[in-house]
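Hi all, long-time lurker, first post. I run a small reading group and we've been trying to get comfortable going from sequence to structure in the token notation. Rather than ask abstract questions, I figured I'd post a concrete chain and ask someone more experienced to write out its structure so we can walk through it together at our next meeting. Sequence below, copied exactly:
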Amino acid sequence: MGPVRKHYDQFKALLHFLETKSPSLIWSEGFGDWCNPNDNTWPTTFGSVEVVNTCLFYYFARMTAEFAALLGRTEDEAWCRDLAGRIQAAFLAADYEPESGCVKTGRQTEQLMPLYVGIMPTDQEQRVTDALQKRIQADGALDTGGYGTMVLLPVLAKYGLIETFDRLMQNPAYPGFGWQIANGATSLWEQWAYEGIMHSHNHIFIAGIDAFFYQVLAGISPTLPGFREFKIRPVLPRSMTFVRSQVRTVSGLIEFDLEKISQGVATRLTVPPNTRCALHLPVVDETVDYVLFDGERLLDLSLYETVRACGIKYIQIPVGGGIYQYRLVPRQYIYQL
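-- Answer (accepted) --
Happy to help. Here is the structure in token form:
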């Protein structure tokens, strides 16, 4: 709460400035999806400016509303939420085509950003997602810059398109990480091309995606501040056989390993003392009859809730501080022991 309280007045002042600066509530200035694939000219490095910056404006209004709620500033909260609603209405009127599901020109980032910040009405999300998938299939490779690349994994995972993400990551065609690796990259570049108007080959700019390796692939995310409570809900594409992760938090070290075995999964989890974790074990094949082991002890699977997210069925296991080893495997696995 300290940083929020300390900087809240600056957040509010900036939000007022942004509203005054752009009465239409549509932001068409700024960098946008910086360093999207370009023709090595300065103007073409500014990508999807209107969509990216208006989405960020909306996201900032929503975030400031949450800060106001935390501080008990009810009038500010109401103003921020009203502003967010007005930004959403202006954005949908200016940049969204409901029939096709396309945002602005339909580029990948223009479909990704509205889904990530939550500016799309719930009943339109699937249309936007379908249009995104069609665009990715048509492009055959990434068409994103800094922001689009950063939000790519969480959006595709949320809407059950993790296999699409996997194909993009492994594709050796330009532009993309696979292309950079195929061309000898051992660190991240400033832009997709090896040579151009910017030449740094050791650059943090498009590294935002790496945070989502542990947040999505390992599925580690807080449900209370400071990771006092958190969930683990891994989302792995078929080509990935394991994930190993560590996250250092103010509550302690979280470690989570998952390996696919015998049509099931084996996990090892370390939960810091005085914290709670909701562990979600993915059901690899919903046609299979599974059993659950805690170490070598067979558990009653019917005692645990199931949830569905990201197009995947999960077994939810609540645990406290400690070290755990679970296996979710087909029943026939028992007879192979």
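A couple of things your group might point at:
DSSP finds nine helices and eleven strands in the chain.
The domain at 221-336 is CATH 2.60.420.10 (Maltose phosphorylase, domain 3).
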